[in-house]
Amino acid sequence: MGNRLSKIVTRTGDGGKTGLGDGARVDKFSLRIIAIGEIDETNSHIGVLLCEDLPPDVRAMLLDIQHDLFDLGGELSMPRHTLLGDAQVAKLDDWLAHYNADLPSLKEFILPGGTRAAALAHVVRTVSRRAERAMVALGAEETVAPAPRQYVNRLSDLMFVLARVLNRAAGGTDVLWKRDRAEGGAQ
């Protein structure tokens, strides 16, 4: 990563192509660029979540995840280069086990919401699912290592759990889906 951006406006993308980290030029609508964009959007939504008042351990975890996602974007921009591996996936698994341990069992579906921080965690969850779908599509066309896809899958799971944790940290609970809400009440 010796090359740093010395200027932002290069005009090299005006024709609909963009450069990868290995110097190759590809269409901006290529599956690789779409996957990179989805990872970047996921990272940006975590940045918005970090603007909220969060427990210190959650803040540290999210900052660590942002660095991993930046590495993942770099890996995607350099085909056949590895930056994210099994250790990062295992780290998410550990966080999932830690944060899930004290949560009550689910008996109903949960709606995105509760506190603002929890709702933002749900946004990260859904955007990371989209990133995962983009990576699966890329993997159907090109070789993609399994760890990055697994990482994004675990990240969406972790964000679901984190939304529940954040609602409880603020003194609230999950927003439960009510199956029979229209029966007898709405006319």
TrEMBL record:
It comes from Pandoraea horticolens. GO terms for molecular function: ATP binding; corrinoid adenosyltransferase activity. NCBIfam families: PduO_Nterm (TIGR00636). Keywords: ATP-binding, Cobalamin biosynthesis, Nucleotide-binding, Transferase. This is Cobalamin adenosyltransferase. It catalyses: 2 cob(II)alamin + AH2 + 2 ATP = 2 adenosylcob(III)alamin + 2 triphosphate + A + 2 H(+). Its EC number is 2.5.1.-. Homotrimer. It is an enzyme of class 2 (transferase). Gene3D superfamilies: Cobalamin adenosyltransferase-like. Residues 8-165 form the Cobalamin adenosyltransferase-like domain. GO terms for biological process: cobalamin biosynthetic process. Belongs to the Cob(I)alamin adenosyltransferase family. The lineage of its organism: Bacteria, Pseudomonadati, Pseudomonadota, Betaproteobacteria, Burkholderiales. It comes from the Bacteria.
